[in-house]
Structure formats: C-alpha cells, structure tokens
Design goal:
Elements lengths: L1 H130 L4 H24 L2 H6 L1 H12 L5 E6 L9 H22 L3 E9 L2 E8 L9 H4 L2 H12 L3 E6 L5 E8 L3
Parallel strand pairs: 1-2
Antiparallel strand pairs: 2-3, 3-5, 4-5
Helix pairs in contact: 1-2, 1-7, 4-5, 5-7
Length: 296
C-alpha cells in the first residue's frame, strides 16, 4: 500500500515536472515568436521616425527658400521703387527749375524788353508827329518794332501764358484750345468748373503744361481731325479727359516706346499723387483720363 502511494506521488510529481517543462517550452516558443515581431515593430517605428525627419527637413528647407525668395523679391521691388522715385525726383527737379526759369524769362521779356520796344515806338511816333516827318524808312522802322514787339509777346506767352497768371487755369486752357485749333485739327473745350475758379499758381502751371504737352503730342503724332478736353471736379480731385479721333496705338507697347515727353507728364502727375490712364486702339483714337488731387 505504501509502495502504491509512493508510486502515485512519484508519477504525479513527474507529471507536474513534465507539465512545467512543457509550459516553459511553450513560453520560450512564444517569446521566440514575439521577439521578431518586436524587432519588426521597432524597425518600422524607426523608419517612420526617419521618414518624418526627412519630411520635416524638406519642409524647413522649402520654407527657408520661400522666405529667402520672398525677401529677395521685396528687396528687388524696394530697389525698383527707390530707383523710380529717384528718377521721378530728378525729372521733377528739372521741370521745377525749367518752370522757374520760364517764368523769369517771360517776366523779363514782358516787363523789360517789350517795355523798351514800346517806349522806342512811342518816342518815334512823337518825333514824326511833331516834325511832320513822312519817311518810308521811319515807317519800315515802326513796322519792324511792332513785329519785334509781337514776337516777344508771343514768346513770353508761350513761356508762361499771361491769361494763366492773370485769370487762371480755365481761361488759359480755353485759350490754348483756340490757339491750337487749325484747318487740320479742331480742339474743343468744355468745363463744369466756374471760369473764375483759381487754384494755387504752381498747381495751375503744372496742369497747364501737362495739357499743353498732350496737345503737342496730338498735333505731332495722332493725325486727328478733332480733339476735345473736358474738366470737372469730383471727390476733391480735378478730372481731365482728353480725347481725339486720330490713328491711335497699341497701349500694351506703350512702355516700350514711351519717350521722355510722356515720362515728364507722368512725373508731373505723380508729384501731386495723381494718376493717368490711357485707352487707345489703332485707328480708333485715344482717350486720356487724368486725376489730380486738388490743393488744399
């Protein structure tokens, strides 16, 4: 009986050891299977981290390049604007100097030379009347003096129109249309501004010479039979519209062929923070709209 019990216990113990050994082997096999899975997971995770780092590096490089190009473009635009401002300042300085000199010369011709010629003519007329002289040479001398007087008056008027100085911009522009009209081109004037309206002297001179140069371009280049200028005020701005029925041109090529005359006009307008828009087509005429803030 004792032997039988001992045999049972021995068999039970052997079975437990066998079971434990089987369990350990099963656990070892499970661990062996799990180890490759963990390694694969770690490798996959490492690859993801490397890929993420590469993507972030590319994004950082792209952003750096974008900011670099953006900064360089801003600097380029700033340099261009600075050059344009310098160029416009040079043109305006030349224009201002020219207009001051024109005014001085016009004043000198009108107040001095014309006065001297008028004085000579007066003395000559007095002498011939008192002495009852009827000489052909004196009559020729009077005619020459009168012609010189008229030429100097016209020259003085071209430099700085007397109407502009005395009566203002509206009178002067209306007179400009009359003087430029001829058998080839007729200039028509219309204005919604009162004729006795006055602006600052410098402002009026700038506007007058802008219109004068545009009229000169119409006469020289457009081949127009009719041209019109209209003026009105809108939202504290002086609105000037100049139209002609001439041959026109392609506006997209305007910058390529833009001459110094048009640059001078743009410089004058930009000095007063104004704008100029040109609408033209071949054989369909040209329309120019100018807006200039009114002086306070």
């Amino acid at each position: 009986m004792f032997f039988f019990l001992f045999s049972i216990n021995e068999n039970s113990l052997f079975s437990q050891q066998k079971l434990a050994l089987a369990t350990q082997q099963s656990n070892n096999e499970t661990q062996k299977k799990e180890i490759p899975d963990v390694r694969k997971f770690e490798q996959l995770k490492s690859r993801e981290i490397v890929s993420l780092c590469i993507i972030l590096t590319i994004m950082v490089c792209f952003l750096f390049y974008y900011f670099y190009e953006n900064t360089r473009l801003k600097q380029k635009i700033k340099r261009k604007d600075t050059k344009q401002k310098i160029f416009l300042n040079i043109i305006n300085a030349g224009i201002d100097t020219q207009e001051i000199e024109r005014k001085k010369i016009a004043s000198f011709l009108h107040d001095n030379i014309n006065s001297l010629l008028s004085s000579v003519g007066l003395h000559l007329n007095t002498f011939t009347a008192q002495n009852n002289v009827k000489s052909e040479e004196i009559q020729k001398a009077k005619a020459i003096l009168q012609e010189a007087h008229d030429l100097l008056r016209d020259m003085s008027h071209d430099l700085v129109p007397t109407l502009l100085v005395r009566f203002g911009l509206i009178y002067a522009l209306e007179d400009l249309c009359e003087r430029n009209s001829n058998s080839n081109t007729n200039f028509e004037f219309s204005s919604k501004i009162l004729t006795d309206k006055r602006y600052g002297e410098k402002f009026e001179m700038k506007v007058y010479f802008i219109v004068s140069e545009l009229f000169s371009n119409i006469i020289k280049h457009s081949g127009a039979k009719k041209a019109t200028i209209s003026l009105h005020e809108k939202e504290n701005q002086l609105m000037i519209i100049i139209q002609d029925d001439g041959q026109g041109f392609k506006t997209e090529k305007l910058d390529e062929s833009e001459g110094f005359g048009l640059n001078r006009i743009r410089a004058r307008i930009k000095k007063y923070k104004g704008s100029m828009a040109i609408d033209s087509n071949p054989n369909k005429g040209t329309s120019i709209k100018i807006k200039i803030p009114l002086p306070h």
